[in-house]
Amino acid sequence: MVEYTLKRSRRRKTVALKVQQQSLTVYAPYGVAVASIEHWLQSKQEWIKLQITQQGQLIQQQQQPMQAMQINLFGSPLTLSFATGKKTLVHFVDEAMLPNLHITISTRVQNKQAMYQTQLETFLHDQLESYIEMRLHHFCDQMGEALPSKLKIMVYKRRWGSCNQRRELTFNLLLVSAPQWIIDYVIVHELSHLKYLNHSSQFWSRVNQYYPQYKDASSWLEKNGASLQWKFE
């Protein structure tokens, strides 16, 4: 028989059971013999075992939300794998055929799902930031622009980038899943705002001058932008 905790109450008139966190609790009124309770539990054994098994599977899924999955990194598949261990580590293997990112979370971490998300976002942030910094130098040289005063990577819901009067550029972290030619378009778009802080004809003429395929890139984002997501929910 499965081990259980017996809780008695003077107010209770019937015997009841509850399975929570893979533990069995029996609630019974005073006066009901233990032998009678255990005889009743014998008839519930299959149901109890099923509940404990299902709860065990749910706990494992919460601790390791995905054993393996794929997202896109610069438009190419990136395999993700997850585990628990002594330390929190992120190991990136940049193989030509199929890059792999292995995230290990310390067993001491309580909310492992949130930590998986944090570690993944940190890795993707660094990847996107490195690429944008490199391309900013390239396009600034072409466009005769000084480098922006500040570069930020954030998650936006409705925009891919922004520019303000202080020459600060911000890019959507979700762009890291887009092909690099799409990211290049957003970079040129925001750099063009350094001269024209609007969407006037002069602005679009400047975008076209340094990124002639901007219409194709804009259409790609309209069609595929919603798919650039990666969350454990």
Task: Please compute the radius of gyration using only Cα atoms.
Answer: 28 Å
Which CATH architecture of the largest domain would you pick?
2-Layer Sandwich
- Average pLDDT, rounded to a whole number, is 87
- Helices and strands: which structural class? alpha/beta
Number of domains: 2
* Beginning-to-end CA distance, first to last residue: 36 Å
**For the report, how would you describe the main beta sheet?**
4 strands, mixed
Are there runs of 5+ residues with pLDDT below 50, and where?
A: 61-68
Number of helices: 6
CATH homologous superfamily of the largest domain, by name?
Answer: Metalloproteases ("zincins"), catalytic domain
Percentage of residues in DSSP E strands: 25-35%
Identify the strand order in the major beta sheet: 4-5-7-6
- How many beta-strand elements? 10
State the share of residues found in helices, binned by percent.
40-55%
How are helices and strands ordered from N to C?
EEEHHEEEEHEEEHHH
What overall geometry do the principal axes of the alpha carbons give?
Answer: elongated
CATH topology group of the largest domain:
Zincin-like
The CATH class label of the largest domain is Alpha Beta
